[in-house]
Amino acid sequence: MAQHEWPLWEVFIRSKQGLEHKHCGSLHAADAAQAIRMARDVYTRRQEGVSIWVVPSTAITASDPDEKAEMFDPMADKIYRHPTFYELPDEVKHM
Amino acid sequence: MYTQAIDVPGKDSKPERAQGPQSPEEARFDAKLADDQKVEPRDWMPEPYRKTLVRQISQHAHSEIVGMLPEGNWISRAPSLKRKTILLAKVQDEGGHGLYLYAAAETLGVSRDQMIEALHSGKAKYSSIFNYPTLTWADIGVIGWLVDGAAIMNQIPLCRCSYGPYARAMIRICKEESFHMRQGYDALLAMMRGTTAQRSMVQEAVNRWWWPVLMMFGPHDRDSQHSGQAMKWGIKRISNDDLRQKFVDATVPQAELLGVKLPDPALKWNAERGHYDFGAIDWDEFWRVVNGDGPCNRERLATRVRAYEEGRWVREAALAYAAKQRARETKQAA
Question: Closest partner residue to A62 among B42, B315, B322, by Cβ?
């Protein structure tokens, strides 16, 4: 018996006007419109959102966890990118 | 709702632990867990860790879904519109909890179809508590108070589980679970303020549910074959017996306030231990229910399978409609 699962969608919710959409989970739906409707029922039952994005899970390209070191470690020794690297005289007060 | 079956072995399961010398990946993985870091879906993980999580999360998901049945039984017979809307919202939450958990399990490379097949064929377990019947309206209140109360005890430590998607699902679930418990206690309080018949209905429901609820925490630590490894992996944080004790200690004062008696003559405060002592659990009953011979096992599973089969045409029609819409868009674009 052939099983046909509905495709998987990733759901992003904007919790409040002015804030970004944030990933909150995933669900199966036949198409985008249905994914939005189901996301509403599943992820915003208590007014958790004012806007929903759905993205087919297959459309997401992710960085490789095995390359985490090569990807992100080069930033570890660039402390001059942070404001706290610079020690200014007290007279400057707020900067 | 809840999860003891998580700790119950499947038919083919052996205690899972790493064999032979450690690989460098394994050493890195162990170091990560020792450092209390989370494991995410595409990170390397030992196969037994993945298998244990798939079993536990999928059984947890099945429990949420099957858990809708005993309560669904009372939606059309709730005593007032207020109680009916509350119960509808609660049962809808349970469906949502099942979905969060299935989605978390799917990140481990198992498909929704595979999990549903495992449930329907009887290969996968779900919490034994849902194999008991809901005979009166008081049972619905008791499920909220005791069953969901036990579930919360169990689930709060799971919010710190080492597997990221499971921990995140549990945080969401725990937030909603508190409503479930409070609405149950509230329904019982209303009945206890009612007639003598209502009060005895509550007492009878408590009598029937108390022991099965204590069983929800799973076998004694000494008999729990997966516990040690699950603790080491950060999948389980507190032992079955410790959670059970915590639950009893929290529940006794709530029962007193409600005005019901917990059906255990051995239940009494032990000043020396700083805990309540309680009587022996009938583990024969527990294993009977886990292994398929509880009062409602066959009915529950048959209802799930029927619902799934009767919904098949809807799932297929939605896919066919989506395919047709896509074809129409492609044609218009051309």
Answer: B42
